[in-house]
Amino acid sequence: MDILFENRYERTKDFHKEICSYSFFKRPLMIAVYIVLALIFILCILSLVFTGIYPFDNTAGFYLPFLAIVMVVIIVRYVRAVEISHKRDLEINNGKPEESQRLIFS
User: Fold this and answer.
1) Helix, coil or strand: residue 6
2) β partners of residue 103
3) Sign of CA dihedral 69, 75, 79, 82
4) Tens of pLDDT along 40-59?
5) Alpha carbon distance 11, 90 (integer Å)
6) Quick one: 64 exposed, middle or buried, by C-beta within 10 A (0-12, 13-18, 19+)?
7) C-alpha span between 96 and 99 (Å, rounded)
8) Is 5 helix (H, G, I), strand (E, B) or coil?
9) Confidence class for position 29, pLDDT limits 50, 70, 90
10) How far apart are the C-alpha atoms of 25 and 63, rounded to whole Å?
């Protein structure tokens, strides 16, 4: 049997950043959530300048800090997830990054 395809990689911190960035930022559901949050954020900014955008009292004073806190929490969770997954791999492999190899035979 001949080797048709060989795949080798190390699970370094960059690997964990790539995996976590997909799950936190690039999934279709998360993109939709971020678009909705961005639209609400833009409406809040506009309601500070042009009063009367919202049909009720000016609530931008509540929404702006809330949205800012949500954005900061998402970023902090991403950074913590990368650190935790990388430290877990190093702990399991005695301080060395895990090396994986996949072979496909013809």
Assistant:
1) strand
2) 6
3) positive
4) 888 888 877 777 666 556 66
5) 9
6) middle
7) 9
8) strand
9) very high
10) 22
In the 8-state DSSP scheme, what is residue 56? S
* pLDDT value, residue 83: 96
Residues in the chain, total:
106
Percent of the chain with pLDDT over 70: 92
Q: How far apart are CA 32 and CA 88, in angstroms?
A: 31
AA identity, residue 59: T
Provide the 3-class DSSP secondary structure of residue 93: coil
- β-partners of residue 8 are 101
**DSSP code at position 54:** S
Q: Residue 23, exposed/middle/buried by CB under 10 A (0-12, 13-18, 19+)?
A: exposed
In angstroms, rounded to a whole number, what is the distance separating the alpha carbons of residues 64 and 46? 11
Beta strands in 1-106 (DSSP E): 3-10, 99-105
pTM over 0.85? The answer is: no
- Per-residue pLDDT of 90-101, as tens digits, reads 998 888 888 888
